[in-house]
Write a structure and sequence with these properties.
By secondary structure, the chain is an alpha+beta fold. The longest helix is centred in the first third of the chain and has 21 residues, at 35-55. The chain has helices at residues 35-55, 112-124, 139-143, 176-186, 206-225, 234-244, 247-261; strands at 64-69, 77-80, 94-97, 103-105, 130-134, 163-166, 191-194, 198-203. The protein has a single domain (35-268), classed as Class II aldolase/adducin N-terminal domain (L-fuculose-1-phosphate Aldolase). Strands 4-3-2-1-5-8-7-6 form an 8-stranded mixed beta sheet, sandwiched between helices. Helix 2 packs across helix 4 (176-186) and helix 5 (206-225) packs across helix 7 (247-261). The chain is built from 7 helices and 8 strands; from the N terminus they run H-E-E-E-E-H-E-H-E-H-E-E-H-H-H. Helix content is 36%, strand content 13%.
Amino acid sequence: MVCRFLNIRMVQSYPQVMSYPPFPRDAKPIVHADPDQERDHRKQQTALGYRLFAALRWGQAGDGHISARDPEQTDCFWLLRYGVPFNQATVNDLVLVGPDGSVVEGEGDINETAYFIHMPIHEARPEATCVAHTHTSFGTPWSAMVQPFQPLTQEAVSFVFNQSIFNGEEVNVADYDTGRRIATAVGASGLCFLRNHGMLTVGATVAETVGFFVMAERVAEVHIKAPEGLPISDEVAKRLAPSLEDPTVGCHAFEFLCRTLVPDRSVVD
């Protein structure tokens, strides 16, 4: 008996995947001159940032926030509306939060803690576009140590001369005055440890801020796992710091993370 197999071509329909644009090695942070284009860009990166946090299993209990200053209404920032899981964040889920904590554009409630933490920092740092914070597996326990990073790894050098500590016990930030004290502690730094609470990053672009946050979590993991690690010398760290603190480093980390963990860019459109 001869069995004949038919060569049948199965056609399956897949949803359209929106790919990322080319990303050359010398790519610089993107800032658009047109405010409408810049707003769209910041909102898309913010939604991607929330998706990245979700892919890394952060914010599953709604614990965290990424804010992006509006390019025209500079005393306002965009924030994910309350109740949207990070892995479902889209640009349409972002609301514009005013100086008094009210929603001035979009619909929905906000996480009040995000307002109390982020708004004072945006107010104190007019050059900053983004603030990112969430509770993580290593950054949060390291914050309980109330110690700065040491130059234990290459990535750590990005932060050792650009970090600060908020040494307050207000782990439940429920008022604006506490936020002001946090902003004072942050100062001009890009990374701040909120004692017994977690990490927070600040940057000139959303990509830089989120990229450096992920890098900081990796550095925190090293500090937790290798507490007796031998740091590199201050001399070497100071020599390497200018290149590793460069905002482009955080932006490139963000781009690689997006392409790896959120391969379909259309989810934020």
